[in-house]
Amino acid sequence: MSTQGPGGAGNVGMYVGRDMLASVPEDRREDYLRLVQEISDLKYQLGVEVARQLPRLFAEQDDAAVERYLDQVRAIADVGWKSGVEVAKQLPDLYHAPDPTLAEAYVAIVSEATAGAPDDADTQAFIAELDDLERQLREVEPKQQRATELKSLLAARDRRDERRRKHAQELAAALPPILARLRPKHRDCYLREVQLVAAADPEAALEASNTLLDLLNGERLSHDGASAWVRRGLDVLEKSKEVGRGYFRMGSKYSLEVLEELREGLALRKVARVLKLYATALSGRDVAVRAIDEMDTVDRFGPDHIMLPADMRFFRDDDRNFVAYKVAAAHGAARIEFGTYRFSLEQIPETVADLGAKYGPGAK
Amino acid sequence: MAVETQRMADFRIVEEPYYLPVGNEIALFEAAYEAHLPVMLKGPTGCGKTRFVEHMSWRLGRTLVTVGCHEDLTASDLVGKYTLRGDETIWQDGPLTTAVKAGGIAYLDEIVEARKDTTVVIHPLTDDRRILPIEKKGEVVQAPIEFMLVISYNPGYQSVLKDLKHSTKQRFVALEFDYPNADLEEEIVRAESGVDADVAERLVKVAAKVRNLRTHGLEEGVSTRLLVYAGQLIQGGVEPVPACAATICRPITDDLEMQRSILELINTQF
C-alpha cells in the first residue's frame, strides 16, 4: 500500500494510505489529515486507527458525528491508549445503532473499566515520589555521560603522557651523539628549532633532530630556512601527529617540497649530469659527480669521482652558482686526469715523461 | 635501341682538392690502384674519407663517380635500366656502369646503407674477374685496368640490421681513418676555413674534449668537417660561441644536458 503525507501534516503520511485519503471528500482532506495528526500526537497507534475510521464519517457529511467521535476517542485515550484504540475501531459502527445512546454508554463502560477506582493516598504518594525520582534521574543522566567521557579522555591523556615521556627519554639518549656531530656555527639554530619541536611532540623531535643535523651540516638550508622548515612542519604536526612526524623524518612529499622551496642557491641534483659530462669531457675519464652529503658512502677523494656541495650558494643567481660548480668540477677533473690521488713519489719520472708526451716539452 | 651514357667530363676533377695526409694512406691507395685492388675506407663521419677519394681521383687523373648509398638504392640504380624517352625505349647506364666503362673511380659512399642485393652486384668487380654483369641486357662489361672501386663504411653505424657481410668486407683493402691529431686538424681547419691559428687551436681543443664524450651519450664525436664549418662561420663574422653552438653542439646531439655541457666546454675555450 502506498502512502501519502502532505508536507504540512507531520509524519501522518507514514500511515495514511493513498486509498484512505482518496475516499475522503476533496474539500475535507486537509481537515482529515490535520485531525489524524492531532490524534496520533497522543499515541501513534490511535492515529493509525482513527485514520482508518475517519473517512467513513467524513463520507457521511456529518461534522457533529466527527467531532463527537474524536472527543470520545480522546476521553478514552486519557485513561488508557490501548482501550482507546479498540474504542476508536468500534465506535463508528455503534453510531449506526437504532439507539443513539448506545455509543455513549459503551464509552462510559470502557472508560470506567480502564480507569478503575481512584487511587488512595499512599498510592498517590508513591506515584509522586517515583515521578520525582525519575525526574532526578533524567537530570543526572547527561552528567553521568559527561563523567564517562571525561574518564575516557583522561585515560587517553595518561597513555599519551606515558608515550610522550617514553619518547622524551629516547630523545634524551639520542641528542648528545647528534650534538657531537653538529658544527658549532649551527648550534644556536639547531637547539632552538629542536626545542620547538620537542615541546610539541618528542617523537617528532627525534625525527627532526636527525634531519636538521643533516640539513644544517650539509649546508642544505640556511638558519632562516631551517626555522621556516620547522615552522611549516609544526603546522602539519598540529593537524596530525603521524603526518607531522613523517614531515620531520623527511618522509613526506610535502616536506621535500618545502625543503626545495626554501633552498637557497643551485642544487647539485639539477646540474649533476651536465657537470659530469663536462668533467668527463675535460679529463677524458669517466668521472662521477657526487654530493658531499654522500661522503658516508664513498671516499671523499677518489680516482673516479668529484665531490661537490649539494647546493651552491656563493652567489645570488643560479648562473654564477653554476659557474662556481663548473670551476670546482674542472678542478676535480684536473686532479683526476693528472692523478693527484694516485700520486706516489716513485712515479715522478714517469709522470713527467707522460705529461711531456701529452702536452709537449713545455710541460716539463 | 639507343644507349645513353653520361658525359665523363662531368666527373673529372680539375682542381686539386685540399687534403692533408694523416699517415701513409696516399701511398697505400696508390699501391692498391696499381695492383687493381678495390679499397674500403673506414672511419667516422666527417673525418675526410670523401675528400681523400676526391684528392686521389685528381692525383691519379681518373674520373670520379660518387654514389651516396641509401636503403632504397637498388642494383638497377647502380647498373642501369630501360627507360622511355618519347616513343623510344632507351637503355640508361647507371653510375657504376658509367664508371666501369670510363675506367674511372666508382665511389660508393656509406655502402652499408644500401640494400643487400646492391652490394652483391659489386662482387664480380672486386675480384680478379673485374667484370660487371648487366643481367637486363645480357651483357658483361669488362672493367679496364684503370677502373677502381672504392667504398666507404662507418663502423659506428653498424648494427644488427646494418652491417657489411664478411663476404663483402673481405674483398677490399681497408684504410682506416679517424680524426687527425691536433696539429694536423688545426692545419686543416685553418686551411679550409681561413681562421687564424689561435681560433683553429681553440676549435680543435673543443673537439678533443667533446670527443671524450663518445661513450657517454654521444654516438659520434664532433667531426673535422663541423670544425671547418665553425671556422667558416667565425670567419664570416659570427661570434665564436654562437658559431660553435650552431656547428659543434647542436648538430651532434638532441640531448639538452649534453648540449649544455658541450656549450660549457665551448665557453671555457672562447
Describe the structure concisely.
Chain A is mostly helical and 364 residues long.
Kindly describe this structure.
The complex is a heterodimer of chains A (364) and B (270). By secondary structure, chain A is mostly helical. Helices cover 70% and strands 3% of the residues of chain A. Chain A is elongated and about 145 Å long. Mean pLDDT of chain A is 85; it is low at 1-9. By secondary structure, chain B is of the alpha/beta class. Chain B folds into two domains: 3-176, 3-Layer(aba) Sandwich (Rossmann fold), CATH 3.40.50; 182-269. Helix content of chain B is 41%, strand content 17%. Chain B contains twelve helices and ten strands. Chain B has helices at residues 25-34, 49-60, 75-79, 95-102, 116-121, 123-126, 166-169, 182-193, 197-211, 224-235, 240-249, 256-269, and strands spanning 3-4, 39-42, 64-68, 80-85, 88-93, 105-109, 131-134, 139-142, 148-153, 173-176. In chain B, the strands form three sheets. Chain B has a five-stranded parallel β-sheet. In chain B, strands 1-5-4 form a three-stranded mixed β-sheet. In chain B, a hairpin with a 4-residue loop joins strand 7 (131-134) and strand 8. In chain B, helix 8 packs across helix 9 (197-211) and helix 10 (224-235) packs antiparallel against helix 11. Classes of the chains: A mainly alpha (364), B alpha/beta (270). At the A-B interface, helix 13 of A face helix 12 of B.
